[in-house]
Amino acid sequence: MKIKESEAPSNEIVTASSESSSLGCPCTLVKPCRPDCTCANSQMSGGCGRCSAYGSVIQRLASATRLAAIIDNAKSRKHYEVDADINLVFDNWRRNGENIYATEEGIGLRMGNMHSGTVFHGVIRLRQNEHQDLIEAAETGAYARMRVILRETP
Ligand SMILES: [Zn+2]
Ligand SMILES: [Zn+2]
């Protein structure tokens, strides 16, 4: 069986300077995938993690397959998630919705580490639309108030 020349895999190395293959790559428009990304700077030899413009045909095919799967997978998910850095500002102690901060028990509790106004740093995993809600609320000075419930106790 004869393989046509054009179908035979070649080990030709394609670089940004030899053709405009990187033109559609996001690295030419936004923060590059890494400092030595070749799409962002044709003097660099790092290749690119966001497109399939570099390497042999087989390498390019492998990266195209990987990238297509990532994009299709992300599109198929209704909401993608973001890990947002948050400040948790301690408010008070409650039980069954009732503020017990001023009670004897609450006074005992707040002799500990958590006082009204103490700020804790956290990361919260949000759907993109939930994250957007918080951002829009913050622009107006509004914020979400939540309960802290440990999912696991040691
Ligand atoms: Zn890149
Ligand atoms: Zn690229």
How many strands appear in the DSSP assignment? 4
How would you spell out the order of helices and strands?
HEEEHEH
Question: Approximately how much beta-strand content do the residues carry?
Answer: 5-15%
- Bound ions, cofactors and other small molecules, one mention each: zinc ion
Helical stretch count? 3
Unreliable spans? 1-10, 14-18
Strand order of the largest sheet: 1-4
Which class best fits the helix and strand makeup?
A: alpha+beta
Radius of gyration: 26 Å
- Determine the fraction of residues in helical runs and give it as a percent range: 25-40%
Mean of pLDDT: 83
Shape: elongated
Number of domains: 2
Plain-language structure description:
The protein is of the alpha+beta class and 154 residues long. The chain has two domains: 26-76, no CATH class; 81-139, no CATH class. It is 25% helix and 14% strand. The chain contains three helices and four strands. It has helices at residues 57-76, 104-110, 128-139, and strands spanning 81-89, 94-95, 98-99, 119-127. The strands form two sheets. It has a two-stranded antiparallel sheet. It has a two-stranded antiparallel sheet with strand order 2-3. 11% of the residues are buried. Mean pLDDT is 83; it is low at 1-10 and 14-18. The chain binds zinc ion (2 copies). Residues 27, 32-33, 37, 39-40, 48-50 line the site of one zinc ion.
Outline of this structure?
The chain is an alpha+beta fold.
Q: Key features?
A:
154 residues; alpha+beta; 2 domains; two-stranded antiparallel ribbon; two-stranded antiparallel sheet; 3 helices; 14% strand; elongated; disordered N terminus; binds zinc ion
